[in-house]
Amino acid sequence: MFYIRVTVRDALNQAMDEELERDERVFLLGEEVAQYDGAYKVSRGLWKKYGDKRIIDTPITEMGFAGIAVGAAMAGLRPICEFMTFNFSMQAIDQVINSAAKTYYMSAGRQSVPIVFRGPNGASAGVAAQHSQCFAAWYGHCPGLKVVSPWSAEDARGLLKSAIRDDNPVVFLENELMYGVPFEMSEESQSKDFLIPIGKAKIERQGNHITVVSHSRMVSLCLDAAAVLAKEGIECEVINMRTIRPLDAEAIETSVMKTNHLITVEGGWPQFGVGGEILARIMEGPAFNYLDAPAVRVTGVDIPMPYAKILEDNSVPQIKDIIFSVKKTLNA
Amino acid sequence: MLAIISNVLRGTASRNGARVVVSARTYADFTPQASFDIKKCDVHKLEEGPPLQAVLTREEGLQYYRTMQTMRRMELKSDQLYKQKIIRGFCHLYDGQEACAVGIEAGINLTDHLITAYRAHGYTLTRGGTVREIMAELTGRRGGIAKGKGGSMHMYTKHFYGGNGIVGAQVPLGAGVALACKYLGKNELCVCLYGDGAANQGQIFETYNMASLWKLPCIFICENNKYGMGTSVERAAASTDYFKRGDFIPGLRVDGMDVLCVREATKFAAEHCRSGKGPILMELQTYRYHGHSMSDPGISYRTREEIQEVRSKSDPISMLKDRMLSNNMASVEELKEIDVEVRKEIEDAAQFATTDPEPPLDDLLRGTNPWTKLKSVS
């Protein structure tokens, strides 16, 4: 078995490189993506390889350049529009929702918008309230969008390739704190056509006692919590959602019907969030009758992200919070 | 004498219901083309503007007349249907502004691209939509150009990107289409329209900046009909010289009521773009007879006298008609015949639009929405 260690950043970089090479309609635009090699170096080397036509530095005008990207997609290109962080996508959110997401429907299928909006999402470290919001719930709410939230390097690679090849607008939520994290990747995943289907979750760890559903960086914490709990004989089934919309409710239901217990873990705020949606779906489906305890959401604290480290650390779920919730749910 | 004979013959023809070629007066009697003086355009950051004369051929004249008349009657019919509550929601009518849509299309090719805001029925027509499809879309039927899913503001055809409801949002989109044109190297351009109200939007200035930086083949066109909903231009804009608002982008101010003026300016602008010089801006001074939309009577912020004055002195269809008749490029009867044909086309379309069935409900049940399992069917 051949494995190499690849960071999430490099996986994203390679995915974009390969897709740029494969299809000349693909291009990347955003702030600092070209000559600066990317604000977080995700697009390192791409401008040097592909030049001004395919890798475009934009002025700091999100609404304008997101609209330009959407227009280019309507006219036959396949843009990757980078938001330096998804916080700045709020300036352009009208273009994402009203121009990109809704157009295929409004035109009765005549006009597609094959665009990928990507960038770091959610909390980082010490960047305070205006730079730390998670947008999974906001974008996940909207019909017409696909919303993807990779965790590992393999996720990043396979899902970004799928997103670029998808003819729908895809919101691709990365995580800054995960960029530098290395993962082992199989030889198979190094293939240029390695695609992970959008809309399918992955069971990262099998278990019989409780289903723990999460996305993005929180998956790491869930796995760490599961390792601690295993020592006490509690076996968690950790599900990595991979996609926010369309949500793989079936995977979660199947797991819950096996374990009879459910918690969800996310970095975003609790109200009207990803966890809330999962819990509602479980109630609407066959898995409800298999629950032995109410399902629980573990989320970020319902406040604008504070700056002080001690406050920030306690504003997002920690391993101890996940362990606590699991035990409470199991009444252990 | 010749004229009397031709009228009699024509009369006979229509009574018999047959289309008879009236040989008493042949097409050779008409002037095949004529040259007209057109208003000089004010320019911004340009050495020279479009020519001061336009050549109009008989064929072109008849085609512009027919299209403008079709547009006019289509909009008036929509007004009627709206008042009968057969059309609902938003309906922004274009009557008065026909010279803009027709003149622009005459200056570009169908292979070029165009995007506009919500006052879009006229452009849907010039960009290849049929009156039937447009009206059936307004009435929300399955035969509509967007199968009833879009409505008045969301109609699309090939190389026509709507129909956009959010004021100003279409401008960055248009520049994006222009970027694709440049990227794909097919010598196409994008015409990107917005109104005097939208002209103050920040995203438009962001777009000017990028279009200029990257030399995108984009013709920005401000259709200045003097009112952004109920707010006159003087009350909305610190500078009403919309053709200068592009700052570093060259601009033209054009008489938007004269189809020839619009056409020449568009040709001039298209040449500018296609030669790789980057974007250019045109302000078309035009006027809408209706209010902002069907829910606006349009007389609380302007006088009936003003509307009447424009109608009598500057109506685009009348202007073209007068030009053609006074230069013997067409006959009164011929134009009347076109009017009759247009009326028939509109009637047919309205008939279709009111009788075509609505879209099926199954369209709503697609997808893995669990909510639909709970939806009541009765």
UniProtKB/TrEMBL annotation, chain A:
Its EC number is 1.2.4.1. Its cofactor is thiamine diphosphate. The pyruvate dehydrogenase complex catalyzes the overall conversion of pyruvate to acetyl-CoA and CO(2), and thereby links the glycolytic pathway to the tricarboxylic cycle. The keyword Transit peptide applies. It comes from Cyprinus carpio (Common carp). Heterotetramer of two PDHA1 and two PDHB subunits. The heterotetramer interacts with DLAT, and is part of the multimeric pyruvate dehydrogenase complex that contains multiple copies of pyruvate dehydrogenase (E1), dihydrolipoamide acetyltransferase (DLAT, E2) and lipoamide dehydrogenase (DLD, E3). These subunits are bound to an inner core composed of about 48 DLAT and 12 PDHX molecules. Interacts with DLAT. SUPFAM superfamilies: Thiamin diphosphate-binding fold (THDP-binding) (SSF52518), TK C-terminal domain-like (SSF52922). It is found in: Mitochondrion. This is Pyruvate dehydrogenase E1 component subunit beta. The keyword Mitochondrion applies.
Automatic annotation (TrEMBL), chain B:
One of its GO terms (biological process) is glucose metabolic process. Residues 369-378 have a biased composition (Polar residues). Residues 66-360 form the Dehydrogenase E1 component domain. CDD domains: TPP_E1_PDC_ADC_BCADC. It catalyses: N(6)-[(R)-lipoyl]-L-lysyl-[protein] + pyruvate + H(+) = N(6)-[(R)-S(8)-acetyldihydrolipoyl]-L-lysyl-[protein] + CO2. It comes from the Eukaryota. Gene3D superfamilies: 3.40.50.970. The keyword Oxidoreductase applies. Its cofactor is thiamine diphosphate. GO terms for molecular function: pyruvate dehydrogenase (acetyl-transferring) activity. Keywords: Carbohydrate metabolism, Glucose metabolism, Oxidoreductase, Pyruvate, Thiamine pyrophosphate, Transit peptide. It is an enzyme of class 1 (oxidoreductase). Pfam families: E1_dh. Its EC number is 1.2.4.1. Residues 351-378 are annotated as: Disordered. Heterotetramer of two PDHA2 and two PDHB subunits. The heterotetramer interacts with DLAT, and is part of the multimeric pyruvate dehydrogenase complex that contains multiple copies of pyruvate dehydrogenase (E1), dihydrolipoamide acetyltransferase (DLAT, E2) and lipoamide dehydrogenase (DLD, E3). These subunits are bound to an inner core composed of about 48 DLAT and 12 PDHX molecules. The pyruvate dehydrogenase complex catalyzes the overall conversion of pyruvate to acetyl-CoA and CO(2), and thereby links the glycolytic pathway to the tricarboxylic cycle. This is Pyruvate dehydrogenase E1 component subunit alpha. It comes from Cyprinus carpio carpio.
